[in-house]
Design brief:
Elements: E1 14-18, H1 25-35, E2 40-41, E3 44-46, E4 60-62, H2 65-73, E5 77-83, E6 86-91, H3 92-100, E7 105-108, H4 111-120, E8 125-130, H5 134-144, H6 149-164, E9 171-174, H7 178-195
Parallel strand pairs: 1-7, 1-8, 2-7, 3-4, 8-9
Antiparallel strand pairs: 3-6, 5-6
Helix pairs in contact: 1-7
Bound molecules: guanosine-5'-diphosphate and adenosine-5'-diphosphate.
Residues 19, 21-27, 140, 143-144, 175-178 line the site of adenosine-5'-diphosphate.
Protein name: Guanylate kinase
Binding site for ATP: 19-26
Domain Guanylate kinase-like: 12-190
């Protein structure tokens, strides 16, 4: 975690969205953003190589490890973590400016990042996306066909630990039907906006 992070939360709401690899986080958010613009998506930085369809500056900022380390040293991340063997971090500037402008922001980050955010933004809203079953998760990850066997195995091992953390989240949403899940997320965003 970065020291000296001080962000004003008087403006927008910070949503934290986590879930195991292959549960459908990206798919559900893509579907949601087709019809909803009530939250801003924070684009993370990563040292993971891009998948075929992924665009730099859209899905992630893809960087080499030395660049990531440089930004880390400059305290440019709200949080960062090593996940499945690569580094991932949330750039501070975008989130800070959006929240200060009164916009609501969603971070799609892993459980380690969520723990860090919980310490510095206890007011954030934490949402965990769960698979209907572990075998459904295995099938989804296999069907995505974006990792080799070894990487898929690592992601599934990590998934068990990630799912154990779900009870620490404010909301747990099972991703059965993509459209229904997107609607449930919009429902959560709107409910939280109305409360503040
Ligand atoms: N801590 C942290 N985790 C992130 C960040 N961006 C993405 N992640 C998480 O890193 C994990 C791997 O992401 P990715 O490589 O896109 O794989 P996927 O989950 O299989 O789609 C997921 O749990 C993401 O939520 C970030 O900025 N910080
Ligand atoms: N509700 C769902 N039902 C069936 N398949 C799904 C569902 N949501 C996502 N998928 C599929 O599961 C795979 C993993 O989804 P993805 O969005 O890449 O997951 P994540 O971002 O959580 O790693 C993709 O092939 C996607 O099409």
């Amino acid at each position: 975690m970065q020291r000296g992070v001080s962000l004003k939360l008087s403006g927008g709401i910070l949503f934290v969205f986590s879930g195991p690899s292959g549960v459908g986080k990206g798919t559900v958010l893509d579907r949601l953003f087709e019809k909803y613009d009530g939250v801003e998506y924070s684009i993370s930085m990563t040292t993971r190589p891009p998948r075929d369809h992924e665009e730099n500056g859209e899905d992630y900022y893809f960087v080499e490890e030395d660049e990531f380390e440089r930004i880390k040293a400059e305290e440019g991340f709200i949080e960062w973590a090593e996940v499945h063997g690569y580094l991932y971090g949330t750039p501070k500037k975008f989130v800070k400016e959006a929240l200060e402008a009164g916009k609501d922001v969603i971070l799609e980050i892993d459980i380690q990042g969520a723990r860090q955010v919980r310490k510095i933004f206890p007011e954030a809203v934490f949402i965990f996306l769960e698979p209907p079953s572990f075998s459904a998760l295995e099938k989804r990850l296999a069907s995505r066909d974006s990792e080799d066997n070894e990487m898929r195995k690592l992601r599934l091992e990590n998934a068990r630990k990630e799912i154990e953390e779900a009870s620490r989240y404010d909301y747990r949403v099972v991703n059965d039907d993509i459209d229904e899940t997107a609607e449930r997320l919009i429902g959560i965003f709107e409910k939280e906006k109305n409360r503040r």
